[in-house]
Amino acid sequence: MTQAPTLTDGTVTIRAHRESDAQGSYEQCQDPLSQQWTTVPIPYSMDDARSFVGEFMPKGWADDSEWGFAVEVDGRYAGTISLRSEGNGRAEIAFGSHPWVRGTGAMERALRLLLEWGFAEQGLQTVIWRANVGNWASRKLAHRVGFSFDGTIRGWLPHRGELIDAWVGTLLHDDPREPRSQWLTVPVLEADGLRLRPWRDSDVPRIVEGCSDPETQRWLGQIPAPYGEADARDWLEQSTERLARGEAMNWAVVDPADEDTALGSVGWFNHTLGVECEVGYWTHPDARRRGVTTRAVAAVVGYAVEVLEVQRVTAFAAVDNVASCRVIEACGLSRYGVERLGAWVRAGRADMALYDVLAAEVRSSR
Prior knowledge:
The protein has an 8-stranded mixed beta sheet with strand order 1-2-3-4-5-6-8-7, with helices on both faces. It is elongated and about 70 Å long. Strand 9 and strand 10 (194-197) form a beta hairpin. It has helices spanning 22-28, 32-37, 46-62, 106-121, 136-144, 204-212, 214-219, 229-244, 292-306, 322-330, 359-365, and strands spanning 7-8, 12-15, 66-73, 76-87, 90-97, 126-132, 151-159, 162-172, 189-191, 194-197, 249-254, 264-272, 276-283, 312-318, 334-345, 348-358. Helix 1 (22-28) crosses helix 3 (46-62) and helix 6 (204-212) crosses helix 8. The protein is an alpha+beta fold. The protein folds into 2 domains: 7-172, 3-Layer(aba) Sandwich (Aminopeptidase), CATH 3.40.630.30; 189-365, Aminopeptidase (3-Layer(aba) Sandwich), CATH 3.40.630.
């Protein structure tokens, strides 16, 4: 039997649960995100909360199966974190926050206290993190405190009557408690009367419209046909995955006077640090022949040069895609060759025009 210590970094305290935490636990488990990503009972009653803080958590300490702590900030209940012992110096980390504390950094502080205690006082050698696929908040928090991302386990986590795919990562005793890679954050850019902002779930209908358009379908042969809501949501998930891996960034192009209506997409990818990246885009049919894509692409080319600090920006389009080639050329890129059958269009393979611009040329053109 292990006694729960009280640990603090001066801002956040983790301690044994108290009867008074039941109200906070009850509130936390009414939260839609808590219900979506955890297996808390639905509905969740005050009796459930009292049982959780007064029986379930103390039992874990009594039999050393789970070392659970209440998180406290400014004297207020902020969530629960725990290490679930798996024996032989191994444990699984678990955490859930009250909605009021999200976005404050408090849970990261709490997890750091928990991990240091587990490694130093409980002799842990390996801590594993698992979460439902799609729980980006959990994955990002694990990333911040140093967990590796080790992939996806299919059909692993029980969740409300089914087995669902799980993300998994690990943190070893001697690992640094810091991110292993850069998790990109999409900034808002102003682009000559346009705004480039992060994509939102509410943009799904516009994505479907843009990617179902015959011209988009004709020239982007790699996208699904027909293109539906599930495809748009999958694209958004893939975009977030690339941000998490530090590999690519996509913006929704909007009019500042109507930020809810996406006019297209523009982004960078295929990034070689300090050397080059590629830009790509598609345009909603509502925005064509208005200079929207040209202005958006020019802004991303500038971002790549000034922020990514690449020496070269590339862009490619099917030779017969005259509109796309004009956009690229209007942004200052020059054609340097043609790759025969290099483009994948709906009808099959087609010749691809190759464009690039050097950082020095971008700067001089300004």
